[in-house]
Amino acid sequence: MQPGTLSDRTRSTLSDALAGRRGGLRTALAFAGPAVIASVAYMDPGNYATNIQAGAGYGYGLLWVVLMANLIAMLFQALSARLGIVTGKNLAELCRDEFPRPVVWIMWAVSEVAAMATDLAEFLGGAIGLALLFGLPLMQGMIVTAALTYAILMVEQRGFRPMELVIGAFVGIIGLCYLAEMAIAPVDWAQAAEGLTSPALPDATALTIAVGIIGATVMPHAIYLHSGLTQSRVHAATAGERRRLLRFSNTEVVLALAVAGLINMAMVIMAASAFHHGHAEVAEIETAYHMLTPLLGAGAAVAFLVSLIASGISSSVVGTMAGQMIMQGFLHIQVPVWLRRLVTMVPAFAVVAMGVNATEALVLSQVVLSIALPVPMIALVIFTGRRDLMGEHATGLAVRAAAILGATVVLTLNLVLLAQTFGLGA
To answer: Quick check: 270 and 55 in contact, CB under 8 A?
Structure first.
């Protein structure tokens, strides 16, 4: 089997399902993979940093931000997958083909900055977890994270499915760890429900964290990545088969992103129940870990670290895959995995070498991601609404309006944050 392919058995199952000859759960699982890989971006270490600060500082009050971000993520991931399935191209390739050259260069530059911010969060998260669990210096933790990431990336040479299964296993580990956290933490479910349904931003710090949550949840590289994961994975021979493929894709997006959303909510809920009353100042991952043992017990602390390490390693793998796709799509050049890994690793190592506070760097990296988000979001709205590209699968008025609203929410929050940061609203 060549790299980037499916096994004959899986391909046969998919073909039979698209032709309407097979059904059931086992057949549906054969379509699972792209959204699972993309969902890792929605539970990376940047989410840990922003969600801990949200829960510790504001209790359950910012859960509505997590819910809103997840709903926006579902919509844009579904659109990204649709773009790849229908056009056979990924978002970066379409940007290169359809936009003027100066615009393409600007979009690529913004996307590269976002990729570096992504790697900063992922590397730091994995390194912090390894450093705390095994007593390693942070720099050594980053080296181990880099080595593990590269080793897992080599699995992709064996095809789509092995990589999808490996990433799926990491998602399972993260989910099980937070299921355990919910069983241990003394959750006030009534307050949690109120936080989900009562939008409010009490102060400027809450706004910064809210933008960070959106940046950590609706990530630019994940929007690019999903279109690439679906563009050549399964080929639909007829219009009917393409419609069935899109239904399977939409179902997978909803399920995978629902799991990611629940994990994010669990992070906020755990931090709120453990730290908000009496320890609202907790803002760093290291501090949260050390305080979990006396507050919730050693089991909660270990589950937290294991999930953080799984998150850091898996999201670093996915970040590299997305970075390769972005660079190759915009520049139309093949990039070796080691070079792509190096390009986005250097800033992360530089931050650690300079002694910058790791959790502060994580949160700021998520703000950078949120500021970069409108670029792929706007491009995706434009392309998926074009009938000359999408044919009958071009978005209708309601979906396009929802996508424009989602992009507007992100853009507005970013503009308010920038105005606040530079004192323009004073």
So the answer is: yes
| Rounded average pLDDT over 297-326 | 87
Measured between alpha carbons, how far is residue 405 from residues 49, 364, 398, 409, 410 in Å? 27, 25, 11, 6, 9
DSSP 383: H
Instruction: Identify the H or E element spanning 265.
Output: helix 239-271
Q: What pLDDT does 101 receive?
A: 92
**Whether 395 contacts 403, CB under 8 Å:** yes
User: Among the ranges 40-44, 97-101, 178-182, 219-223, which has the highest mean pLDDT value?
Assistant: 97-101
Tokens standing for 75? 């919509």
Helix then strand count (H, E) for the chain reads: 20, 0
CA 288 – CA 290 distance, rounded (Å): 6
CATH classification of 8-421, choosing from 3.40.50.300, 1.10.10.10, 1.10.4160.10, 3.40.50.720?
A: 1.10.4160.10
To the nearest 10°, report the CA torsion of 216, 218, 220, 221. 80
Q: Give the pLDDT of residue 257.
A: 92
* CB neighbour burial string for 74-88, b if at least 16 within 10 angstroms, e if fewer: bbbbbbbbbbbbbbe
Per-residue confidence band for 2, with pLDDT thresholds at 50, 70 and 90 = very low
Q: Is the dihedral of CA 18, 21, 27, 28 positive or negative?
A: positive
**Residues in CB range of 237: below 8 A, 6 or more apart:** 18
Residue predicted with more confidence, 382 or 295: 382
Give the start-to-end residue ranges of the domains of the chain: 8-421
pLDDT at 25: 65
Question: Percent of the chain scored above 70 by pLDDT?
Answer: 89
* Tokens (6 digits) for 380: 């995706």
| Overall average pLDDT of the 365-377 stretch | 77
Q: What is residue 266's predicted lDDT score, i.e. its pLDDT?
A: 92
> What is the C-alpha to C-alpha distance for residues 388 and 392, in angstroms, rounded to an integer?
9
Closest-CA residue to 31 (of 79, 74, 103, 85): 85
What distance in Å separates the CA atoms of residue 362 and residue 305, rounded to the nearest whole number?
16
